Amino acid sequence: xxxxxxxxxxxxxSPLLPPTDEIIIxxxxxxxIFFVLAKKAFxxxxxxxxxxxxxxxGGLERAAKAQEEATRTLVSYQAQLEQARTEAAxxxxxxxxxxxxxxxxxxAKASEAAAAEAARAVAQISAERASxxxxxxxxxxxxxxxxxxxxxxxSLADDAKARAxxxxxxxxxxxxxxxxxx
Amino acid sequence: MFGSVVVPADGCHLLSxxxxxxxxxxxxxxxxxASFHLFGIEFNITKPVVLLMxxxxxxxxxxxxxxxxxxxxxxxxxxxxxxxxxxxxxQISREVIGKDGDKYVPLLVSLFFFVWVLNLFSIIPxxxxxxxxxxxxPVGLALMVWVxxxxxxxxxxxxxxxxxxxxxxxxxxxxIYLILAPIELLSNVFVRPFTLAVRLFANxxxxxxxxxxxxxxxxxxxxxxxxxxxxxxxxxxMTIVLTGFEMFIQFLQAFIFxxxxxxxxxxxxxxxx
Lengths: 182, 273
Hints:
Chain A has 182 residues and is an all-alpha fold. Chain A has helices at 3-6, 20-40, 42-152, 160-181.
């Protein structure tokens, strides 16, 4: 700061009087900056800024589109899922009905078969009993005659009277047997 | 008491016998380093002129480098350049003129950074001189702004319409125009460039003077005494505080200069009021 006082003030050097040369030099410097930058720097900067804004806006647009697409897909998936659920429920209901029908049919068949079997068995048993009863009747008749012959001491075989009494006896036996059966 | 008769080699101090070497307007006058004649005008190369050229080169280098390899995802330097550009575009041009002011953004960006860098030299070591405190530079810029908005206004609104729009804003009682019309003409055509130049010049001039006074004061007060020690400390503190304040003023003045230019250009583009 020692130089402050040393600086000589030249006559007419008021700070409010702008020298022409400084005005010209200042303007030259400014226009140099303006023309060089307006030609070489600012267009490039402006273009880059615009390109970036475009890229960001484009990105946002793409994101919005993707979001919309995703929403649409979700809705369609939900619809499909709902449809599948309904179908599954329908299939389940019909399967249950079918199963019940099959079971019912099987049961009916089985009981039918059982009834037939039972009827057959009853018929067989009664047939066997009839045949057994017939053979027994004959045998008992023969036995009785033999026995009576032995007791009376003569053969009753040719005697028609004897035959009739035996038959009567046997009828009585049969009646008794029938009574017992009841 | 402690008065020394020996004047130190490093200048005047509190107790060295000589008074406070208060700075005068002379601190804005610089020795001529070189000089040449062109078209009958004498061009003097002084320190402010050297700083001016240096500032112009720095601004051009900064923006040219920032715009050299533009990428969509910018590097640090490109981001910085874009920040400077978008600051002026969004905070000044689009705020004041609107979207149709984008054409004038290169002018406004150049103007803002030119003025700001020239102001900034005030607190940059070694430079330590606000180039804009030389009245000629604000005058030149204000002239440029004046020609720009006058020509633009006459081109966009018509050479006569421009003045009538300016002097007769619609929607006022007729007698008012008797007073308003000359005031508007005076204000828009003659006062605007003058205040634009003076505002910038006076702010930087006063700021430099303040910083000089306090730094000279700090140096002057350095002496083996209580008053000297306290005074020197206070003065140095003030220099530092004012340097911070000047930093703000330098930005503000560059901003105002550019903002007003945008306002004037906007007024010329569409007749307002």
